[in-house]
Amino acid sequence: MAQKTIISCAITGAIHTPTMSPYLPVHPDTIAEQAIEAAHAGAAILHLHARNPKDGSPSVAPEHFREILPRIREATDAIVNITTGGSPTMTVAERIPAALEFSPEMCSMNMGSMNFALHRLADKYDTWVQPWEEPYLRSTEGNIFRNSFTDIRGVAESLGGAPHHVKFEHECYDVGHLYNLKYCLDAGWFQGPIFIQFVLGILGGIAAEYDNLMFLKQTADRLFGDGYEWSVLGAGAKQMPMAATAAQMGGHVRVGLEDSLYIAKGQLAKSNAEQVEKIKRILSEQGNTPATPDEARAILGLKGADQVGF
Ligand code: KMH
Ligand code: ZN
């Protein structure tokens, strides 16, 4: 039987800001509502960041996650994946307290230090809803998103083993990050099967081009053989085409307003669920079947929804 396709939905992230779309959820109420809708639409994994309810700025504060997580748990059986990436301007120490407190089934794990530049987005807008948005975006021109081997080992040690047994979404933004992951795996920092998220389209990482996706996949095949599951996140305009291609190649897919605010060229998505519905239609036409949360748990070897701390 062909493998099912796991749909992840990344609900809000830390790239987009309130000015860019009125539909981007930046309050705990709307983050929870949109996450629940996305799960009901077919997302098996919800990749979650929090926001400060006062001004919609990126937050990793446990108090802000606390307003979101129980609502999702009550209304869905989706797998919750808490970011350890936070925002590109935060240190690793700042980024992991919520994951430690809530012990989710999954967390993201960024597999290398890099430029993670969002400043080009600031050039598109003249007026801003919130005063923090423009300085935040412009500051990323000179910022390094730090994920050293020491940082990666620290997150692996504190979340990967007992008592948390978190499975990581290994975010690989370039081919070198796959070699970083191979080093970490050989060092025994992670348990298989590993789950790789190929991230294409961030300025500072590899561009969202099909040749690059093939190169990433071929390299991962050489390094990890059949010991890995993989998914694709195309940031920006290539979100849906990259996801469709990944599914055709036997991979999993990630959509959501964290990665693209659009549903079609020039047309803002009105919700995360709208993007989940669209990728579901594409998968159906292609002959791919979305995985349920429990099927995704089995594919990825997760600890189970009864083992989380929220
Ligand atoms: N925003 C994505 C490009 C994380 O949360 O750890 C990367 C991301 C990082 O999802
Ligand atoms: Zn994220």
What does this protein structure show overall?
The chain is α/β, with parallel strands linked by helices and 310 residues long. The protein has 13 helices and 14 strands. The strands form four sheets. It has an eight-stranded parallel β-barrel, surrounded by eight helices. The protein has a two-stranded antiparallel ribbon with strand order 3-4. It has a two-stranded antiparallel ribbon with strand order 7-8. α1 (28-41) packs parallel to α3 (69-75) and α11 (239-248) runs parallel beside α12. The model has no long low-confidence stretch (mean pLDDT 97). The structure holds (5S)-5-amino-3-OXO-hexanoic acid and zinc ion. Residues 10, 13, 47, 49, 83, 85, 108, 258 line the site of zinc ion.
Provide tags for this entry.
single chain, 310 residues, alpha/beta, 8-stranded parallel barrel, binds (5S)-5-amino-3-OXO-hexanoic acid, binds zinc ion
What is this structure, in a nutshell?
The protein is of the alpha/beta class and 310 residues long. It has helices at 28-41, 62-66, 69-75, 92-95, 97-102, 119-122, 133-139, 149-160, 175-186, 210-224, 239-248, 272-286, 293-300; strands at 7-10, 45-48, 50-51, 58-59, 79-82, 106-110, 114-115, 144-145, 167-172, 194-200, 228-234, 252-255, 262-264, 267-268.
